[in-house]
Design goal:
Elements: H1 8-37, H2 65-69, H3 84-103, H4 107-129, H5 134-147, H6 154-183, H7 190-228, H8 236-262
Helix pairs in contact: 1-3, 1-4, 3-4, 4-5, 4-8, 5-7, 6-7, 7-8
The structure holds zinc ion.
Zinc ion is lined by residues 49, 51-52, 54, 74, 76-77, 79.
Amino acid sequence: MSFHALPPALAAYFAALCALTGACMGSFINCWALRYAAGQRWPTGRSRCPHCGRALGFFDLIPLFGWLSLGGRCRYCRGPIGPRCPMTEAAGALLYLAAGVTFGVTLHTLELMLLSPALLLLSLIDLDTMELPGGPMLYAVAVFLLFLPAHPQPPERLWRGVAAAAAVFTGMLTLTLAMDKLLGRESLGGGDLKLMAVLALYTGPSGILLTLIAACLLGFVTMALLRARGRAFPFGPALCASGFFTALWGEAVMDWYWTLMMR
Ligand SMILES: [Zn+2]
């Protein structure tokens, strides 16, 4: 059922539910990424203050409000807690809200809600460690296959996705090898290429082109921001954001582009 077909009260309830579950997802993923950077592969045990090590209570863990109500400080030692946690929670809320409003109460919304934690986790891990682990990518492929039968045309979605993944992987691999030779250093990592292939499954052939264009534009912005701080530049976050944008609004953007061209 489309979001705009819902009665207003139900639509407001659905939107609030999306934002709240998305914020909780963001909170959990941020915690997982921090632990991954510290060498722990799975998040186990309770969240602790990075300064005094006290285990955080239930109220400290309420997304956004926990951080805002304490003014970005630990309840026990008043040590500063950076804005990364509430920012990831806000990102999670926005991702779920965008999926819910765009595709309404459908299985496709649920598919994107299950895909987004993998993309958020990959983005944060890439920012922290310049690595793109394979686990979240395999999970994203599994979500794609799980929801395939629920799609209106499963065989078409499958072959379009696989063709796009194979084309973007081989095409970008060739380009990367040529660039590496030309520059004498590594230009794109193997993780970036795999991530492009995974995103192509979801977006299809024309969608992955849009994803790459958007990722390059976004990549330039993040590169400028990070270089200004003297930090290395990971391409994963730009790819994840562009891939999710295309999965949400790629078709609308391309329809708009074609009508513009046909005038
Ligand atoms: Zn503390």
